[in-house]
What we know:
Layout: H1 8-27, E1 43-46, E2 49-52, E3 57-63, E4 66-71, H2 77-85, E5 94-96, E6 99-103, H3 109-146, H4 152-185
Antiparallel strand pairs: 1-2, 3-4, 4-6, 5-6
Helix pairs in contact: 1-3, 1-4, 3-4
Amino acid sequence: xxxxxxxxxxxxxxxxxxxxxxxxxxxxxxxxxxxxxxxxxxxxxxxxxxxxxxxxxxxxxxxxxxxxxxxxxxxxxxxxxxxxxxxxxxxxxxxxxxxxxxxxxxxxxxxxxxxxxxxxxxxxxxxxxxxxxxxxxxxxxxxxxxxxxxxxxxxxxxxxxxxxxxxxxxxxxxxxxxxxxxxxxxx
Length: 187
């Protein structure tokens, strides 16, 4: 019998999407080192719409603990400055013309532990998303088998493949989390 209409590559793509979202979220966590991705979640009210910071300015890292934001439009400097202040990143920009300089302060141990907890929360959300994709895949397989388009042997084989993909993706999430945790806790 055929394996019906089951697309394993789509399932893996959806699982990798959860990993991608996790990496984006973890990239926004401040680790004590300057990173241009730290400012990625910030949006600015510009030209009548909300725009990401990287569409109104260039973010660079001139030093290990310094971010430089070069705003392209002089009229947008105050809006960018306000958005950075209001972003809950704990950063206070120093404005010099169209350039905003952001000193990244040292993190104390308590704040590092809080960031680790946030990272764990993000990772758990990614794992839940992967498990949802797994459940959707398994439900689809069972439906295809129930409709008679797949043999029970094919169901077992594909179920194992789905579980293997799930396990690999969760291992990747754990590895990504461990890497970020190490980065956060390193002084």
